[in-house]
Amino acid sequence: MSERAASVTPAEEQDDEQPDADAQIADGAAPDATEESETTPEPVTTGAEAVVRALENAGVEYAFGVQGGAIMPVYDALYDSDIYHVTMAHEQGAAHAADAYGIVSGEPGICLATSGPGATNLVTGIADADMDSDPMVALTGQVPTAFVGNDAFQETDTTGVTTPITKENTFSSDPDRVGTDVSEAFALARDGRPGPTLVDLPKDVTKSETDREPDDPRVPDTYEVQERADEEIVAAAAERIENAAKPVMLLGGGVIKGEASDVCREFAIEHEIPVITTMPGIGAFPEDHELSLEMAGMHGTGYANMAITHCDALIGIGTRFDDRLTGGIETFAPDAELIHVDIDPAEISKNIRADYPLVGDAATVVEQLCEAIDASPKVAKWRAQCQQWKSDYSMAYEAPEDEPVQPEFVVEALDEATSDRAIVTTGVGQHQMWACQYWTYTEPRTWVSSHGLGTMGYGLPAAIGARLAADDDQEVVCIDGDGSFLMTLQELSVAVRENLDITVAVLNNEYIGMVRQWQDAFFEGRHSASEYHWCPEFDKLAEAFGARGFRIDDYDEVAETIEAALAYDGPSVIDVHIDPEANVYPMVPSGGDNGQFALTEEQL
Amino acid sequence: MRRGLDGPAPEERPTPEGRRNDQGIRIDPEVEATHLPRRTVISTLVQHEPGVLAEVSGLFSRRQFNIESLTVGPTDDEDRARITLVVEEPDPGIDQVKKQLRKLVPVISVRELAPDAMRRELALVKVDAERPDQVAAVADMYDATTVDSSPETATFEITGARQKIEAAIETFGQFGIREISRTGTTALARGTAETAAPVSATESATDQPTQQDQYTADDD
Smallest Cβ distance to A346: which of B22, B99, B108? Predict the structure, then answer.
């Protein structure tokens, strides 16, 4: 939190003249902390009120959802609550918005849906949050308990369906217990390794009378989290780092979730250790710092992949060594001993065997490491090598005036036009990779994307959640692709209704671009179902929704259009017609050797 | 126009010496270490509530752990049940089984049992009883109890280690087996050792498997 507060830049106070969209919402409806503490809340009388009280006790300000039959009692209780409910166009949008809210704010995002189709529509968003360890609470309506198991109208075994994709889920069967179930779900979503939790709420349980106030959010007794790592292993790891000739720090999403960015930065800078991030770890370390090698993996930078392949000590913090990062296991950091910091013991040695397993909270363990290290490793030669790779494999691109607009140029132009604290959300595909590669991230919680699950359509609903969690002076930019945007663009209606200041830049190449890239490389250019020449005109569509629409076809339109879209106080969509043949490089083919990344199609 | 980025091509780049095996372990070129699967018993204490067994079995199926048998039953504490799992995996897999089980919120403790733990299975075997004397002799040999008999069939109950039951089934085979039902292994640690005492997170994370013994002599 301190990082976010500390880095307000004067450049970003430009929005001051315009009344900010969320400020209006906040003034109008969101709870005011001081007011709330002065009035004693009414005692709860129903299960539904206990559910809402549990959320209020947890400090929830926003909830995202869609009404429906079985969840109606909860919505009825929300009617009297200060929690601001954002009605989404589709439950998937609610889940992604809650997910993004959780990423940006650090507190679990809340989504609600009714039973059956409502609950199943949440599933993609829950699975997404689960893969990325994002804190989120899903509350689903359920048919009355007497009907459960009878294939009643709008019945789905929601806890059964979501067991593999939640950190924990509960079928709440007791009105005296339902509030506490929600409190517990909130605590479980947030504590330790974050993740999505779900409480299934049968209609009779929420309608029933109860005077039982929910307990405060706390995790069950059987849930244990280890904060501090074993001192002996810390000492051994510290010694290994001291003796390393080619050390690299690999910062994952856990660094951001564990609020460990500051201490990791101090550690890296003090000992001059080059830093790589995973995709979820983007923002954990400033990418404009000399030590930063940016992102490694399938579409990571060439220098990051060279460094990770040739290092002799890999300090992995809060990362689960996903295959998009490692490529083939056999060739991943093959000479490196692995020091692995993670709060979840099951991540240690799951994919890559850890030589120094350090279970604990990222910030705490890195502080332990700081204390245990007596001398910095001698890394002058290694750092020079990394710098050499940085110039050998620079991320420069060509943008000739006579060619269609290159996507990299648009991403860089957006980055330049916004502050360091601007939040970027994306869908999934080529545009997402360009947004990783060509935007310079410097702050945690400014990169909001679907990493593990790779959910197309994530960008726009995520921008809605991010907007509500962000500070007023932070711009929210959604960099989307035409295919991704088409999947959830109905959420534009929500952005318009709430007058949310979001800028969507659709990098439109009329393809499912990443698939087209793979088809060109691995399927003899047979573009089976990847051509989207039937795309609507997104700028006009935006106008139809009541948002502002813009279109870019040429380089000379880029800067001024972006400026106009950012200046517009409300949702705007820029339909950017980019070079349809543009591809993402570098690229490590699936399961390949990170050190053998391709820079061109011929090298694949 | 050439599309892509500049820089030395793959064949112009240095490549590291080392390699990892498919279990993510750095290989010493001299000794290539790949763990072979071994059979082991994992005992876990869980909250006695609906859905826990589904959570545990679902975990096994979605993570593709090779499960040999699973038994579950109440304990002396009515709030807790014991699940006994027999798995066959390489060491890193067994380690993952334990860690992933431990992550489930209703799971109280997870322990891998020592090779000398008491392991028992029960089988019901229904055989043709055309030669009653010989059938009885075989039953006697394996301490099998007669549960039911009819003019055509006899059903025996056999308890013991898995190998004994398999041997008994094989021997009964000569008479013609009509049906078999087996329970899977249940187990307890020997002596004063606790079967599923809570394990701290550190222990389960850093605990590198030490028991290399294969459970070949699967009995007591």
Answer: B99
The yes-or-no answer on residue A491 being catalytic is no
End-to-end CA distance of chain B: 74
Instruction: Measure Cα distances from A339 to A342, A595, B40 in Å.
Output: 10, 21, 29
d(CA B12, CA A335): 19
Q: Name the residue with tokens 């109008």.
A: A28
Residues of A in contact with B21 (CB under 8 A): 329-330
Going by C-beta distance under 8 Å and a sequence separation of 6 or more, which residues neighbour residue B174?
A: none
* DSSP secondary structure code for residue A46 in this structure: B
Dist CA B117 CA B82 (whole Å): 15
How far apart are alpha carbons A474 and A421 in whole angstroms? 6
Chain-chain contact of B2 with A600 (C-beta, under 8 angstroms): yes
pLDDT mean over B1-30: 86
CA dihedral sign, ordered A516, A522, A523, A524:
positive
**What are B156-196's pLDDT values in tens digits?**
999 999 999 999 999 999 999 999 999 999 999 998 888 87
Q: Which residue on chain B is closest to A197 by alpha carbon? A: B105
Is A437 labeled as catalytic in the residue annotation?
Answer: no
- The predicted complex's ipTM stands at 0.86
Answer yes or no: do B26 and A603 touch at CB < 8 A. no
What predicted TM-score, i.e. pTM, was given to this entire model? 0.91
* Active-site entry in A91, A168, A475, A491: A91
Q: How far is CA B22 from CA A317, A328, A331, A350, in A?
A: 22, 9, 10, 11
Contact B106 A334 (CB under 8 A): no
Q: How many CA atoms lie within 13 A of A391 on its CB side?
A: 5
Residues with pLDDT less than 50, chain A: 1-31, 33, 36
- Selected residues 156-185 of chain B with any CB under 8 Å from a CB in chain A: none
Q: What pLDDT does A1 receive?
A: 39
Would you state the pLDDT for residue B1?
52
CB contact A302 to B (< 8 Å): yes
**Chain-chain contact of A188 with B95 (C-beta, under 8 angstroms):** no
Pairing of strands B107-112, A247-251: unpaired
A341 vs A251: CA distance, rounded Å? 10
**DSSP percent split of chain B into helix, strand, coil, nearest 5:** 25, 30, 40
Residue environment code for A116-127, b if the CB has 16+ CB neighbours within 10 A, otherwise e: bebbbbbbbbbb
Confirm if B123 and B168 have CB atoms less than 8 A apart.
yes
